[in-house]
Amino acid sequence: MASSSSIFGRMKDPGLMSCFSPSISTHRCRKQALNRVLAVMAPMQPQRSPATTGSVKHAMSMTEKILARASEQLHLAPGENVWVNVDVLMTHDVSGPGTIGIFKREFGQNAKVWDREKIVIMPEHYIFTSDERANRNVDILRDFCTEQNIKYHYDIKDLGNFRANPDYKGVCHIALAQEGHCRPSEVLLGTDSHTCNAGAFGQFATGIGNTDAGFVMGTGKILLKVPPTMRFILDGEMPKYLLAKDLILQIIGEITVAGATYKSMEFVGSTVESLNMEERMTLCNMVIEAGGKNGVVPVDKITLKYLEDKTTLTFEPVYSDDCARFIQEYKFDVSKLEPLVAKPHSPDNRALARECKGVKIDRVYIGSCTGGKTEDFLAAAKVFLASGKKVKVPTFLVPATQKV
Hints:
Elements: H1 4-8, H2 14-19, H3 27-34, H4 62-70, E1 81-85, E2 88-92, H5 96-107, E3 119-122, H6 132-148, E4 152-153, H7 172-178, E5 187-190, E6 204-207, H8 210-219, E7 221-225, E8 229-235, H9 244-255, E9 264-268, H10 270-274, H11 277-285, E10 294-296, H12 301-307, E11 328-333, E12 340-342, E13 350-352, E14 364-366, H13 374-386, E15 395-397
Parallel strand pairs: 2-3, 2-5, 3-4, 5-6, 8-9, 8-11, 9-10, 14-15
Antiparallel strand pairs: 1-7, 12-13
Protein name: 3-isopropylmalate dehydratase large subunit, chloroplastic-like
Keywords: Iron, Iron-sulfur, Lyase, Metal-binding
Pfam families: Aconitase
């Protein structure tokens, strides 16, 4: 047992404390104290040695695991703010000049980027325009890439002959995947809201602004808040007349354009497992239309097969734990879904295609990051063949990349 003085040293009663101060220790005071129950102290215990079974395991989602690795943490939970090490930063001819300007302003005119092999620069929006101001954006990218010796600068040099430019790729989100910059469990950031496209590869990918990108360009780090995860389980055989665009429009129609604000959207289920990588990219690409921070699909044999000839860098896929907590969970029987349309002026203004039968179409555009992939043109070809090979309205087909 500890001595009386050590017990009373913990007492909060000022009367008793003064009674047992070192300078006053009388029989009257001791008698007064003994009439009251003060405390019960357990006997001293020997110090316990650390457990040999390792640290306590906390269940985490895919996104939490990826950010934990990137922030060198054992465990993360939604709402935590962490400094994350970035694996790839992408910018293009719209946001690139602004990002470069902020980088030079904050780090110095002669500063060097944190890693010239982890920055990907893709001119794609203004590359074929004759506007001088737009061309100036592309010139700024070229000068910067030369100055910094950026390894991955996908430029175009001959505007008169499109095919004479093997380095030019096309839409950045599809080109990132085709050129091997999308890898499982990595963190990929881009100055474009649809950077979340890369989540199809089981990685954390999201869009950031010029200020954040300028900071990443100089440090390789970013401060992120860990998002909670919503899980979408899509099961059932997918009808041949559906595409992944129908699936994501169904989801957005259910949760609205604000339904996933600053949340991770994880896609699982037998239907997702049956999709090729292009279709999975469509799912993840459009999470931003629901306000999502990122979208993610678990890595499987289809992912690994796609990556076989794309990258030589090593990676280790992660998966959500069985006991991981999801803020919400939605289940869909895909076999019962129908083709959908997003009517003006919002992606969640969902309607069945057959409900729009009487709407007159003036012009058709097939392209962009979710509509310009090989899968999309194969689907369009089937429609053209079924219609008797007659196009009744102006129709524009724009492949997303040269490889498409």
